[in-house]
Amino acid sequence: MKRKSFLDNALMIIAAAAIIFSLVMTAQTFDNGPQFDYSSKHIDRTNPSPNNEYVRIRDSLRTVVECEDMQLSDLGVSHFIATIGLSKLPTPVNCGAPVRRGNAENKECYYLAVAGYKISKESSFYLEGNKYMITSGQQGGNKSGDSYGGNMTKEIPVRYVKPAPGFRNQQSGYILVPIPERVYHTLYIVMLVIYGLVCVLVLQYAIIRTLRIILGISKGRMFSHQSTRDLLVAGRVFMALAITPLFLQLVFYYVFNKEIPAQIRPAFGQVVWENKIYFIVGFTMVLIAKAFEKGYKLQKENSSII
Amino acid sequence: MPIVVNLDVMLAKRKRSLSELSQATGITIANLSRLKNGHSRGIRFSSLHKICDVLECAPADILELVTTEQYVKLMGRLPMGDEEDDEQ
Question: Which three-class secondary structure state does DSSP give residue A112?
Answer without folding.
Answer: strand
